[in-house]
Amino acid sequence: LFRSLEDWDMARCKPIVEGRLLGVVRRYLGDQVQRMVSPPYVDEGRRSFPVPDESATIGVPVATFPRYLRCPTCTFLAPVDCGLFELRVDARRPERTRYVHVNCSKAPKPPTALPARFLIACERGHLDDFPYKEYVHGGPTPCKSVLELREIGASGEATDVLVCCKTCLKKRTMAEAFSEAGREKLPACRGRRPHLRDFVEKPCDQLVKPILLNASNLWFSVTVTALSLPVGENELDALVDDKWGILADVDDTATLKYLRKQGKLGGFDKHSEDDILAAIKKRTSGEETPVETADLKSPEWALFTEGDEKVGNKDFKVKAVKPPDEFKSHIDRVLLVERLREVTALTGFTRIASPGDLPMSGEKAVQRRVPLTRKPPVIVPASEVRGEGIFLTLNEKRISEWLPRGRDREIALEQAHKLWCKNRRLETADSPFAGLRYVMVHTFSHALMRQLALECGYSAASLKERIYAREADDDGPAMAGLLIYTAAPDSEGTLGGLVSLGQPERLGRHIRNALEAMRLCASDPLCAEHQPYAEEPTLHGAACHACMFSPETSCERQNRFLDRNVLVKTVSPTSWGFFEES
């Protein structure tokens, strides 16, 4: 389990500069946030293989959790500090470091001890060891228990797992803990935060829930993402960034004078060595001025739709091409994004329930989001990737004419959204309905992503979307567009396989095939006729894994707000297809 950011070796963390993103992070976490950094890393030139050195211990610090371990040979279950588990460190292969059960009665040599597979957690993000001793005895007990965790069946399900006390011979299956009645008998949440190695000051009033060690809902990241834009950037900072490969290790003006004499500082003619050195130190320290912005997408939309394609740098380069002739009435603008840089900041995480559409700030966000530090954070972990993409804007006039036709479907989706919020004890003001415009743009993005993945050379999980959709309001003009892109941590980005599909003829063929694939699903008619508010409310209409859903790393809304019926005619009796003729 990773530990608090206070325990990180900041000398090994690389500063990541993105002013717009830092401004938003500070709005969510507080003005004390000074910078964003990468996780601790080791320079490739420092590695000393196979002889280990201090570089083998550089990285994100971790702590042992869960604290309960189980011997797979004799089924013995006890805390790690009971004295019967020993840590065996492999200095040459750190990934092989493990705990072993010494003096195991059923093995000739100490077997590797495994983490106990059950935990308890609450929706406030607290996590604790499962209370095996109290559970098997039905409450607090003076029994000096020797516990075992036996598997009495082959399925591995909770019904086949038995907690046994060898001292008093009591037994109890884990299935009871996962039942509604059993959950109510579990002890109160202690407010434990194992990654911070502490407990909350105020008692937690949430009911705990049993959860598996590797369950997918054990950890949901809460992130904020922005694209790097060249608009308004400092000229000297941009030049330093462009020449960072030769300036990274410069720490005096004499070296700069030598580099200028060698002709390696082209473009710096208007800047003195002192100014250049100050800019280098500023970049090295990660110091930057946060850019205050109402939202992250509006400046990106303005640059994509109104900006000059000649404006760019090594992290942003676009090229305008004609929309496909077949879709000129639907698509206004196509940009080949030949270079882009995406920066993502981690602001916290949630457990049990995903962040979903919760606001990033406010009381509910503070309650649900688990902090990464014991005190208000000064730094925030971040990552940066570079890549390519295709940007499309849809015809605003056609959207305005089409929206009234889908009013009934919008009402159905909005009703489902209200029920969804009610089931999760959320206010619709905190999680507003995205609107039919967003549903249509989002659905089109998924359809096109699935089609492009067949030919671009990248896997479906490596493609991502960024949706620009909102009605005109006080914050800015109406938006209806999408960016499909791929990116990699390599400094050179990706290989151009996605951009090459944005040429008019190829893009037109892919859009045509994508829309045709949306007409029929392998799960029809159940998929096409799905009502989002029926039975368990869902936030999608005609959409499922067979036709629409993408990997959750690709979708910005976790496969919500999707409906094939808003794109084309399906087997559903009614149709609201934006790409159908009126």
- Provide the structure class: alpha+beta
Number of strands: 21
- Report the uncertain regions: none
Give the distance, in angstroms, between the N- and C-terminal Cα atoms.
56 Å
How many H/I helices? 13
Gyration radius, rounded: 28 Å
Please summarize what this structure is.
With 582 residues, the protein is of the alpha+beta class. The protein contains 13 helices and 21 strands. The longest helix has 17 residues, at 407-423.
Q: Can you lay out the helices and strands and say which pair or pack?
A:
Elements (H helix, E strand, L loop, with lengths): L14 E2 L2 H11 L5 E3 L30 E3 L5 E4 L5 E4 L9 E4 L12 E2 L2 E4 L5 E3 L2 H6 L9 E5 L9 E5 L5 E3 L6 H5 L7 E2 L4 E2 L9 E4 L7 E8 L7 H8 L1 H4 L5 H9 L11 H13 L11 H10 L10 E5 L9 E20 L12 H6 L10 E16 L1 H7 L4 H17 L12 H17 L10 E8 L8 E10 L15 H14 L65
Parallel strand pairs: 2-19
Antiparallel strand pairs: 1-2, 3-4, 3-7, 4-10, 5-6, 8-9, 8-15, 10-11, 11-12, 13-14, 16-18, 17-18, 18-19, 19-21, 20-21
